[in-house]
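PT: before anyone asks, these are the final sequences, not the draft ones from last week. 426 residues across everything. Please model them as a single complex and drop the result in this thread when it's through.
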Amino acid sequence: MTTQTAVPKQRQAKPYHHGDLHHEILCAARQLLEENNIASLSLRAVAKMVGVSHTAPYRHFKDKESLLAGIAAVGFDELAAQMSEAVKLHPGDPAGQLQEAAHRYMRLVIGNPQCVQLMFGNVLPCDDTYPDLMASGDFAFDGLKNIIEEGQSLGIFKAEDVEIMALTAWSCIHGLALLFIGGHVEAAVSLPADIRTLTVAVTTTMLAGLKAG
Amino acid sequence: MTTQTAVPKQRQAKPYHHGDLHHEILCAARQLLEENNIASLSLRAVAKMVGVSHTAPYRHFKDKESLLAGIAAVGFDELAAQMSEAVKLHPGDPAGQLQEAAHRYMRLVIGNPQCVQLMFGNVLPCDDTYPDLMASGDFAFDGLKNIIEEGQSLGIFKAEDVEIMALTAWSCIHGLALLFIGGHVEAAVSLPADIRTLTVAVTTTMLAGLKAG
DNA sequence: ACCTGAACACCGTTCAAGT
DNA sequence: ACCTGAACACCGTTCAAGT
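LR: through. Structure below.
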C-alpha cells in the first residue's frame, strides 16, 4: 500500500477527470462564444461540452462573469502579442508599424468578433475587479505610444500630445473594425468592401493627419 | 345600455389595461437596459415594471430579440436626428458640421451606452430580419457623405472616394466613443480625459487627414 | 382584441454528499 | 482536492382559457 501511494498523481489514468479542466473550460467557452453570440453562452453548455457536471466549473471560476473575464483576458493577451509583432516587423518605420498593427488589429477582430464584443462591449466591470484584464490592454496601448514617440523623434509625426495622438490612431482602427463586424460597413460602402483596401484607406487618412506639416 | 356603448373606448377608465402598452414596454425596457447591462435585461422584469403579466409583451413583440430590435431602432432614429441637426447648425461649413456631428455622436453614446452596445454590439442579426433597423443608420451615413461631398466641392476636402472618406470619419469618432464608454480611454490617457477636449483633438487630426493638401 | 395563469425546458448558483 | 446530484429561484416561450 505504501508503494502505491508513491505514484505521481498526474500519471494516474484520468483519476477523476481531466488534467487541466481550467484550460479546457476556457477553450470550450471561447469556441461556444464564437459559435453563437455572447448572450446565449451558458455555463451548463460549456460543462456539457467538456464532459463534466454543470457544477464542476465552479471549482475553477467563481462566476459566469469570472469565466467571461478569463476569455477576455486571453483576447487582450493575443492583441498585445500582435501589436509587438507589428513593431518588430518594421524597425525604424513608425508609419509602417502603424499600418501593420492596423491590419493585425482588423484580422484579430474579424477572426474573433464575439470575443472582441466581450473585451470592449461593457459586459465586464471597468473597475479593478479583474486586475489582469486591463493590464494587457495597457501594454498594447503603451506600444502604440512608443510608435508615435519614435515617429516624432524622427520628425515625421506632429509634435503634439503623444497619448492623444495614440488614442486617435487607436480610435480610427477600432471604430473601423467594430463597424465592420457589426455589418455596418457592408451596409454603407457600396463598392468593394475589401477589408485590406478599407484598412489601408482609413489608416492612410489617419496617418496624413498625424504627420508633420 | 345603447348610450353606454357609445362612449369612446379610450375614455373608459383603464378598461383592461393601458392605452399604449407597446410604447410603455419599449420605454420600460430602455430604462431597465441602461440601469443594468444588456445581458441581464429580462422580459419578465419589463412586464413587472409596466404592471402586466409576463406574457402580455408577446402581444406586441414576437420575441425578446424583437423587443431589443425595437429599442435599437429608437436609438438609430435619435442618432439620425442628431446628425441632421448638426448639418443645419453650420450651413456651408462642412468642417464645422463634422465637428458638431462628432460632439453629438459622443454625447448620445455616452448618454445611452447600453443602447449603443445593442445597436452596434452584434446582438441583433445583420440580415434583413429587422428592415427598419438599418434604415436610420443608412440615413445617418448618407448625411455624412453629403458633408464630405460639400467639402470636396468647396475644395477644402481631398477629392477621393466619398464613401471611404465618410467611413474614415465615422470610424474615428465611433471608435473614440466606444473606447470611452468601455472605460479604455480613462485607462489609457493619464491627464485630463475631458470628453470635449478629446473629441476636438481626435476630430481635428481626422480633419487634417481629410483636407486637401 | 387583449390579457392571464399554468406549464415546460432552460439557466446560474448553492450545498451537502460522494471518491 | 475535485467532482456530482438535488434543490432553488429565475428566465423565455407556448397555449388554453378568461373578459
